[in-house]
Each structure stands twice: as structure tokens, then as C-alpha cells.
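User: I'm preparing a small set of examples for a lab meeting where we compare how different chains pack in three dimensions. I only have the primary sequence for this one, and I'd like the structure in C-alpha cell form so I can line it up with the others. Please keep the answer compact; I'll paste it straight into my notes.
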Amino acid sequence: MSKSALYTGTGDAGMTSLVGGERVRKNSVRLEAYGTIDEFSSALGVIASDKDCVEEVRGQILNVQNELFNIGCYLATEPKGEQAACMSLTPERIGEVEGWIDALDEQTPKINAFVLPGGCGLASKAHMARVICRRAERRIFDLAEEAYVDPAVVRYVNRLSDYLFILARYFNFIKGVDEIVWKK
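Assistant: Understood. Below is the C-alpha cell output for the 184-residue chain.
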């Protein structure tokens, strides 16, 4: 079996193919949406690969990365029937993330002020992933102005930014690092 080429040369003129073969500009809102999802997944990989990442969190992140791949496939497909084949997102998946948020929140001190991004290395990485997640959410809303986007996608991505906020707080807490709070 021969290896496949990593390059095709077909995108050199600023066009690329969606799932299904339709050609679109590389700066289209659809590409921005699923490209930012890919960027977000990569940021999560940085957290999971950190030697200090808690194993349970590493498993949660792998779970999310798999779901983000499905979402990327969904967003990269023109809505003509094939799109549904990419989606496995269910209300239970959103509930799972909410469960992670609640569990982490129970383990961290009450928040009394606005928290600035930073603290320990893992917390900083979680905050960086959180803002990339927020950007992905904005790009999905841009796409939703042009085409139908399943509301479950928006809910899931929104919950992930909440998860990353509490995850950053959790990392600071278990590392004994004080959170940086906003001062007027």
C-alpha cells in the first residue's frame, strides 16, 4: 500500500473543497468556522499533552476533540443530506460537559471577583483554549447567518468555553497558585 500525498496543489489559488466536493474560497465563513474549530481542538491538545495534566481531564479533552472533529466535518459539509452523517452530538453530550463543569466547580473556591487569564501554565493554556473556543462560537454564528447550523453545535461549543474557564480555575487551585483578579 502506498502512502497518500500530503498535498494536492488544488488549493494554491485560494480555493478548497468542502466535504462532498464543492469548491469554495479559503476565506469563506464556512471555512473560518470549521478552521477555528480545528484550531480550538489543537489548543486542547496542548493542554492534554502537558505532563501535569490530570488523567481524568486528559480523557475529557480527548472526548471533546473527537466531538470537535465531528463538528468540523458537519460545518465543512454543505447542508444537502450528507451533513447529518457527520453529527453525533446529542443533548446527553452537552449534559456530560455540564457535569464536568459542576464537578470542577465543586472543587474550586467560590469566585468573588473577575478572574484574569493566567496563573499556572496549565491554567494559562486553558484560558487560551477558552478564547479560541469563543472565537469558534462567533465564527459559527457568522455561518448561521448564511446557512442552517444545528443549535446543538452552538450550545456544545458555548458549554466548552464555560468548561475551560472552570478548568483554568481548577488547575490553579490544585497547583496552589492564586488566581489573578481584576483590580479597577
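A couple of notes for your slides: Residues 19-77+87-181 form a domain with the Hypothetical Protein Ta1238; Chain: A; fold (CATH 1.20.1200.10). The helical segments are 29-49, 55-75, 83-86, 91-107, 121-144, 151-174.

User: Perfect, thanks.
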